[in-house]
Amino acid sequence: MYALTAVLLTRGLGGYFMNSGAAAEFQRLNTFVYSPLCLALAALSGTVAVAASRRWP
Fold first, then answer.
1. pLDDT score of 21
2. Whole-number pLDDT of residue 43
3. Residue of 49, 42, 45, 48 whose CA lies nearest to 15
4. Half-sphere exposure (CA, 13 Å, Cβ side) for 37?
5. Would you put residue 16 in left (φ > 0), alpha (ψ -120 to 50) or beta?
6. What is the mean pLDDT of each run of 10 residues along the chain (57 residues)?
7. Which residues does 38 contact at the CB level (< 8 Å), separation at least 6?
8. Do residues 51 and 40 lie in contact, with contact meaning Cβ atoms separated by under 8 Å?
9. What does the alpha-carbon distance between residue 43 and residue 57 come to, in Å, rounded to a whole number?
10. DSSP letter string over 1-57?
11. What's the pLDDT score for residue 57?
12. Residues 6 or more apart in contact with residue 34 via CB below 8 angstroms
């Protein structure tokens, strides 16, 4: 879960820097949909990872 969180966080933050040289449609979708979605999924998976590790005996 921590690896998934790290990958999603990296994609979410790095997505804002990937816009140079891309098509205009991808830039718009990346800025307003893909990167925020990855950041939200990273936050949720991070929450699950922390909660699961605290329940482990």
1. 83
2. 98
3. 42
4. 6
5. alpha
6. 97 89 91 96 97 83
7. 8, 9, 11, 12, 15
8. no
9. 24
10. -HHHHHHHHHHHHHTTTTTTTS-HHHHHHIIIIIHHHHHHHHHHHHHHHHHHHHH--
11. 67
12. 15
pTM of the model: 0.88
Question: In degrees, to the nearest 5, what angle opens at C-alpha 28 toward C-alphas 26 and 29?
Answer: 65
Q: How many residues does the chain have?
A: 57
Q: Write out the two tokens for 39.
A: 């950041």
Nearest CA-CA partner of 48 in 37, 36, 40, 15: 40
Can you say whether residue 21 is alpha, beta or left, with left for phi > 0 and alpha for psi between -120 and 50 degrees? left
